[in-house]
Amino acid sequence: TDAKPEIYKGLAGVPVDYTAISKVNPETNSLLYRGYPVQELAALCSYEEVAWLLWYGELPTREQLDEFTALERASRAIAPNVLRAIDDLPLSTHPMDVCRTAVSIIGANDPDAEDNAQEQNLRKSKHLFAQLPAIVAYDQRRRHGLGLVEPRDDLDYSENFLWMTFGEESEPVVVDAFRTSLVLYAEHSFNASTFTARVIASTLSDVYSAVTGAIGALKGPLHGGANEAVMHTFDEIGSADRAAAWLDEALARKAKIMGFGHRVYKNGDSRVPTMRTALESMVEHYDRPDMLELYDALETAMGERKNIKPNLDYPAGPTYHLMGFDTETFTPIFVAARVVGWTAHVMEQLASNALIRPLSVYNGVDQRELPA
Ligand code: SDX
Fold first, then answer.
1. Tens of pLDDT, residues 28-77
2. What processes does the entry annotate via GO biological process terms (predicted)?
3. From ligand 1's centre to the CA of 260, what distance in Å?
4. Residue 1 reports pLDDT greater than 80
5. Which atom of ligand 1 is found nearest the CA of 269?
6. What separation in Å is there between the alpha carbon of 39 and the centre of ligand 1?
7. How confident is the model at residue 147 (pLDDT cuts 50, 70, 90)?
8. Which of 191, 193, 254, 260, when mutated, tests ligand 1's pocket best, judged by the most ligand atoms within 8 Å of its CB?
9. In whole angstroms, what is the distance from residue 35 CA to residue 28 CA?
10. I want to staple 136 with a disulfide (CB 3.0 to 4.6 A). Which of 9, 181, 206, 332 is the partner?
11. Which residues lie with the beta carbon below 6 Å from any ligand 1 atom?
């Protein structure tokens, strides 16, 4: 018999390429964006600066930041055909599907969509970056029967995102927690959606196709969809005193507990402490200690039963809930943040491209003859 080649299910533990964009280090529980610890970036930088860093490899100079900021503010309005397409979708459409559709049309509107020159792809990356908040915000509003809120160019990216969602200015403490979540969500090496984007880019397709595909990959509850699933879990449990019993029942039926576990981090997600601090600030701001009690009760029970730690989606879900986002809007916010990482990876892939095409090992029936 032939020796069977080894299969790496889910590509677990298989390095498939180099990246200079971020370093996920499970040994030290750390995450670096272009060499900078993500916690420090979250504390000190605007989301616009972090986006620039991820795309260009260096923080922007004052002049570069001013120019980028002006461009971003001038590129926020949704094109009429994108708005019409969103309005044509049923209200029951999952917001991730709305995002996916909108990005697809934004690509269709770009006469240079197929031009993969680096400066074109940087332009497209910045354009998607500026457009996504409007799409995410408007989709939440229309599901409440509310109209589009025009962007305000006196507000920065994070402030304007909240403005377009809620139609009022948010308190600085809320903006800060939101911006922190965006910085933490921006990039995470070869996760499933980023890898999807790189696979699409590797065929020399275009940025919009790569981002559309990545949105599809992010939607699933084993990946980005977990932040919204966490909120459903919280709703189901109801209060801290019921967390342990709920968990025992869920584990008994072999359910996966959303917001826990990670393919790479086995001792805890490097981003969780920073996001938990942001959650604490929202719990205090909205006076909802019950939320943190439930959060801690489930985390503790999960630690005791399975020794499995929370991932970033665990603190992010309740944070967005307290801010007033609908549960179905959580993963689209992740899209708006991760579009930076996706586009940075598309450009890195193209800079030293090899078609991504692994092998499979056939285990179907042997060759046979068609029935006569
Ligand atoms: C993200 O890759 C990235 O970087 C992703 C991300 C990013 O920034 O891009 O960090 C964002 O996607 C975070 C993950 C969000 N997903 C969830 O929260 C869904 C719940 N988590 C799990 O399903 C799971 O932990 C995964 C999918 C995240 C990772 O799973 P693996 O590496 O494939 O591991 P596994 O499913 O094979 O689990 C190993 C063991 C199993 O037990 P045994 O069969 O060995 O006894 O751990 C158990 C699992 O049952 N386990 C869990 C669990 N996670 C792992 N059991 C219950 N609940 C869980 N959440």
1. 889 999 999 999 999 999 999 999 999 999 999 999 999 999 999 999 99
2. carbohydrate metabolic process; tricarboxylic acid cycle
3. 6
4. no
5. 10
6. 23
7. very high
8. 260
9. 14
10. 332
11. 10, 188, 191, 222-224, 226, 256-264, 306, 308, 311-313
Quick one: average pLDDT of 233-254?
Answer: 97
Q: Whose CA is nearest to atom 18 of ligand 1?
A: 259
Residue 136 has pLDDT above 80, yes or no: yes
Q: What is the spatial distance between Cα 274 and Cα 39, in angstroms, rounded to a whole number?
A: 7
Q: What is the largest CA-CA distance in the chain?
A: 76
Mean pLDDT of 243-250: 98
Where do runs of H (alpha helix) occur along the chain? 38-44, 47-56, 62-74, 80-88, 95-109, 118-142, 157-166, 172-185, 192-202, 207-219, 226-237, 243-252, 272-285, 289-306, 313-323, 330-351
335-369 residue pLDDT tens: 999 999 999 999 999 999 999 999 999 999 999 99
Q: What is the CATH number of domain 19-219+327-351?
A: 1.10.580.10
What is the rounded average pLDDT for all residues in the chain?
A: 97
Distance 5 CA to ligand 1 centre (A): 26
Q: Please report the atom of ligand 1 found closest to the CA of residue 218.
A: 12
Q: Kindly give the distance from the C-alpha atom of residue 316 to the centroid of ligand 1, in angstroms, as a whole number.
A: 17
- Catalytic machinery residues: 262, 313
Please tell me the distance between residue 216's alpha carbon and the centre of ligand 1 in angstroms: 19
**191 Cα nearest atom in ligand 1:** 2
Q: What is the pLDDT of residue 4?
A: 81
Say if the ipTM goes beyond 0.90.
yes
Taking the CA of residue 263 as reference, the ligand 1 atom at the shortest distance is 32
**What are 100-117's pLDDT values in tens digits?**
999 999 999 999 999 999
Sheet holding 36-37, edge to edge: 22-25, 30-33, 36-37
Tell me the CATH number of domain 226-322, given options 1.10.230.10, 2.40.50.140, 1.20.1600.10, 1.10.3720.10.
Answer: 1.10.230.10
Residues of the chain with CATH 1.10.230.10: 226-322
Start and end residues for every CATH 1.10.580.10 domain found in the chain:
19-219+327-351
> How far, in Å, CA of 79 to CA of 85, rounded?
10
